[in-house]
Amino acid sequence: MKVSGILNKRTALIIGILAVIFLIPALSFSQALPKVTIGIDQAQKPGDVAVTLQIILLLTILSLAPAILIMVTSFTRVMIVFSFLRNALGTQQTPPTQVLVGLAVFLTVFIMAPVWQQVNSTALQPYLDQRISQSQAFQNAMSPVRDFMFRQTREKDLGLFLKMANLPKPENISQVPTYVLIPAFIISEFRIAFQIGFLLYIPFLMLDMIVASVLMSMGMMMLPPVMISLPFKLLLFVLVDGWYLIVESIITGFK
Questions:
Q1: Of 232, 214, 234, which is closest to residue 223 (Cα–Cα)?
Q2: Is the dihedral of CA 20, 24, 25, 29 positive or negative?
Q3: Is the sign of the CA dihedral 132, 138, 139, 145 positive or negative?
């Protein structure tokens, strides 16, 4: 009992020393950290209220930025095509969704690079150099993005939203409001993505039908055709260099 008591006292002493050794640097490090505070004070002039409203608007836009970037870029078409491809192959969760999303993001960055370069040269850099105002920078930034969306939008889809908004027929594209252009661009992207998905399904569907017919003729009614056709689908996709062809077709479609 005495030996165990001595061991417990030594153990407690060692733990206390280690705690002090590790606690002192942590306390000194925490004292060196900056303190961030957010306060609400009474506005002294109308300009303070305007700045506050701008900050609130900016935070709202930042919260919606992922959705905005997804819907006004090539990401929508790329992601839908990849989803159709995975379903056509019948590989369930292979490639994983995270991998497909990552590939779609980098392809979007590659496709939209010329647009971002125009935005940077005509809007961001002049605004940072204080050569243009904030409103002018926003207009200059929207111009290349609008040009990109106009190139991918059908006149029929654009006319639909113009009619639903009760707007007259514009004489040029500059008279088309952005809130009309964005939904027209989105449904045009859906249409093209579904067309590509249909073309992707045809060869794999024919392969499924051939395998199912062979199994039925052999009397193997209980054997799932998908189990037999999947290796042939993967072999066909690899032999034709499927990823190369699909990515090339997607990028070429935007150019």
A1: 214
A2: positive
A3: positive
pTM: 0.70
Amino acid identity at 205: L
- Please give the biggest Cα pair distance in the chain: 99
Q: Give the pLDDT confidence of 51-86 residue by residue, as tens digits.
A: 566 677 667 766 766 777 788 888 888 999 998 888
Give 162's DSSP letter. H
> Is the separation of the CB atoms in 217 and 211 below 8 Å?
no
Please, which pLDDT band fits residue 15 given cuts at 50, 70 and 90? low
The pLDDT tens digits of the residues spanning 91-104 come to: 777 788 888 888 88
Among 78, 72, 89, residue whose Cα is nearest residue 234: 89
**Integer Cα distance of 194 and 77 in angstroms:** 9
Cα distance between residue 75 and residue 189, in whole Å: 10
Is the separation of the CB atoms in 228 and 215 below 8 Å? yes
**Amino acid identity at 173:** I
- For residue 31, what pLDDT is reported? 47
Phi, psi dihedrals of residue 172, rounded to the nearest 5° = -150, 170
For residue 132, the SS3 value is coil
